[in-house]
Design a protein that fits this description.
Radius of gyration: 19 Å
Helix content: 40-55%
Mean pLDDT: 94
Number of strands: 7
Number of helices: 7
Low-confidence stretches: none
Largest sheet: 5 strands, antiparallel
């Protein structure tokens, strides 16, 4: 059996908070990349496929942003799994602008067919979007997606905001302890460079002190407050009282 180390999960939850805090974005897209259905059996080929997919997505989002003179970062978080029913596969959450909600899936399917052939099942690279209208809805969707991707996290002991002993699973919101069949991969889970530890360090990001708050809407609200404060400051500049 293989599980995601609890320390790695903690780092990835920090990455989620940084995405919300720095960019004001939420994970709202979910990709399943099934290596076995694509005929991939080696670690190297799986790594190449994951890299190629994310480089293609980054380029697609960059071209979309250029049309509207804005930057659209490609932020993602992933974890490998293996099970009897689906074999070796990977789940990834990412940010996809709502304007692309009907365009991204056919684009990704075209990418899959171009790179792996039409004879491979289309379900091997599957995308599903989820969008919310309010900050709280967006945070709830993100929390559900992230919990699912990181569901094979190993058990660990922690403490709640009141200092009382609690399990990591209870604090984050998993209902049960799950594991993957044996996986021999150098990195079972990870995230994009723009939300990595280095990026968080450069920006002076301070993680949420309690596990219960790591998937809340608090960091989205902090980003919105900073934007509003900056707009107010800009409006007041030059005004003489």
């Amino acid at each position: 059996m293989t599980q995601i180390p609890s320390q790695k999960t903690s780092e990835l939850l920090d990455a989620v908070g940084f995405l919300n805090w720095r960019y004001g974005l939420c994970f709202n897209g979910f990709i399943t990349l099934n290596f076995e259905q694509l005929g991939i059996t080696s670690q190297r080929d799986a790594s190449d496929a994951l890299t190629a997919m994310n480089e293609a997505i980054a380029g697609y989002l960059r071209r979309y942003g250029a049309r509207f003179e804005t930057k659209v970062p490609h932020a993602f978080l992933y974890a490998h799994e293996r099970c009897e029913k689906y074999g070796w596969h990977l789940h990834e959450v990412l940010t996809v602008p709502i304007a692309l909600r009907h365009l991204f899936k056919p684009w990704l399917l075209t990418w899959k067919r171009r790179n792996f052939g039409s004879y491979r099942p289309d379900r091997a690279v599957h995308f599903r979007p989820s969008y919310g209208k309010t900050l709280q809805q967006q945070a709830n969707i993100q929390a559900r997606l992230v919990r699912y991707v990181l569901k094979t996290t190993a058990p660990a002991a922690g403490r709640d905001r009141f200092g009382q002993p609690a399990s990591l699973h209870d604090l984050v919101g998993w209902k049960s302890v799950r594991s993957s069949l044996h996986l021999d991969v150098p990195r079972i889970a990870g995230c994009s460079q723009n939300i990595s530890f280095g990026a968080r360090l450069r920006e002076g990001f301070e993680p949420a002190p309690y596990f219960e708050d790591m998937l809340s809407a608090d960091r989205l609200q902090e980003h919105l407050s900073r934007i509003r404060a900056a707009e107010l400051h800009s409006q007041l500049e030059g005004i003489t009282l």
